[in-house]
Amino acid sequence: MRLSRYFLPVLKETPSEAQIVSHRLMLRAGMIKQQAAGIYSWLPLGYRVLRRIEAIVHEEQARAGHIPLLMPTLQPADLWQESGRYDAYGPEMLRIRDRHKRDLLYGPTNEEMITDIFRSHVSSYKDLPLTLYHIQWKFRDEIRPRFGIMRGREFLMKDGYNFDIDKDAALHAYNRHMVSYLRSYERMGLTAIPMRAASGPIGGDNTHEFLVLAQTGESEVFYDDRVTGLKLGARDVDYDDRDQVAAVCGEFTSLYARTDETHDEAAFADVPEAHRKVGRGIEVGQIFYFATKYSEPMGAVVVNDKGERVPVHMGSHGIGVSRLLGAIIEASHDDRGIIWPEGVTPFHAGIVNLRQGDAATDAACEGLYGALKARGLEPLYDDTSERAGAKFATQDLIGLPWRVTVGPRGLAAGKVELTSRRTGESEEMSPEAAVARLAEIYDGV
Ligand code: P5A
Q1: What is the structure's pLDDT at 250?
Q2: Ligand 1: which of 323, 325, 328, 330 to mutate, judged by most atoms within 8 Å of the beta carbon?
Q3: I need a surface site. Which of 202, 309, 318, 368 has the fewest CB within 10 A?
Q4: CATH 3.40.50.800 domain locations along the chain
Q5: Residue bearing the CA closest to ligand 1, atom 3
Q6: pLDDT in the model for residue 307
């Protein structure tokens, strides 16, 4: 993409309405625009990151054997009357009446609708296990929408639902989700800690929230700090192997880690004092096992191998896709702007032309631009006539992890400069070497 033809409305001033750094930086970097309280347009740069996060989520769900579909944002009220949640959900639910006076709602979650799909098409244990998910906009009329997209009213969620023959199979689905979520967050450059939590209006006794530690987080958390050093890394997990998946979950959940909703002072006191930490966290996901809470009232039953009709065991599993942008920025920025992890960056590298209009410099930039694209990378080429200082400031603000700087002086020696946004370190090399280095960095990201 050439910056001269892109739409990147960066702001020079710090917007006064933004209380936390991620909100400020998203506004300044021209990623989002507020349209109403808690409702945002996603401008091109923000939309690119949102798509990258979605792509990681889809890839990791596919790896776990989960199947994507797409349900609508509007739902008929009758489904929610069947489960008993239409009245229970309260003022967070946006209720709508159509021209035929039929009651609808803008979905805050999809347990009822997916259960309806399941009961319409599945009737035998032979079709289980089954996990369906989608990435779709949700609406919750939050009493206090704040921190930009972090607590929105309209927000993008990945929500998945498992259908299993019994509790053991459903707990395996729960564990599969935990591992696939850990892997997704790691690919986004985040450490998200599974913590015992409360289930709220979704239901069930088994639930974990995934928290990214941050001062600005809305949840108070209590944990053994050795949990922050755990990594899945490159290990290969066989998602069909119940014991192996359970062992990974055991590793990530055996140290004390709870939100204030389930915190237990006595159990916390057993954590060695040096490791006992109280802090704040951003909830970027939550998984639930709620047995037959929806399948029983809604008649989602299958015939088991003994010929009996039994309600299926279910759970639901959510990732806050749009909230993740805020969480990543909270975890990765400095006083000049965002620092995107390679896994989610909107462009792989910036190209800064220090002397726009100089034939040799322009040609070298064009060459780099073409060569990076030929390697499957997406560069953002600053081909504007801004002065160098302003170009660098924009690059730093929007946070591309790598920058290639091209100027007449370096070119005279056959060199360009490759700079890491994270460390600030620069290295001079030939344009070909810079392309090869970037291709290597992104190989396997
Ligand atoms: C699980 C999937 C559920 O709704 N039903 C379907 C279950 N869980 S949840 O914890 O309530 O939400 C899942 C994740 O969505 C994000 N989230 C939000 N993001 C931005 N703004 C909001 N107002 C908001 N509310 C929830 C969180 O990341 C949460 O973990």
Answers
A1: 97
A2: 323
A3: 309
A4: 349-442
A5: 318
A6: 97
In the structure, which protein residues have their CB atom closer than 6 angstroms to any atom of ligand 1?
109, 140, 142, 151-152, 155, 157, 159, 202, 283-286, 288, 316-318, 320, 322-323
Q: What is the pLDDT of residues 89-105, one digit of tens each?
A: 999 999 999 999 999 99
**Rounded Cα distance, 177 and 60, in Å:** 10
Residues 138, 157 contacting (CB under 8 angstroms): yes
Tell me where in the chain the CATH 3.30.930.10 domain(s) lie.
3-337
CATH class of segment(s) 349-442: alpha beta
Q: Cα-flanking dihedrals φ and ψ of residue 173, to 5°?
A: -60, -40
Calculate how far, in angstroms, residue 110's C-alpha sits from the geometric centre of ligand 1.
11
Q: In CATH, what number does 3-337 get? A: 3.30.930.10
The number of C-alpha atoms within 13 Å of 277 and in the hemisphere containing its C-beta is 16
Which residue CA neighbors atom 16 of ligand 1 most closely? 320
Which tens digits make up the pLDDT trace of 209-251?
Answer: 999 999 999 999 999 999 999 999 999 999 999 999 999 999 9
Which residues are within 8 A (CB) of 265 and not within 5 positions of it... i.e. 6 or more apart? none
Q: Which residues contact 440 (CB under 8 A, 6 or more apart)?
A: none
Q: How far is the CA of 283 from the centre of ligand 1 (A)?
A: 8
pLDDT band at residue 324 using 50, 70 and 90 as cut-offs: very high
**Cα 310 from Cα 86, distance rounded (Å):** 25
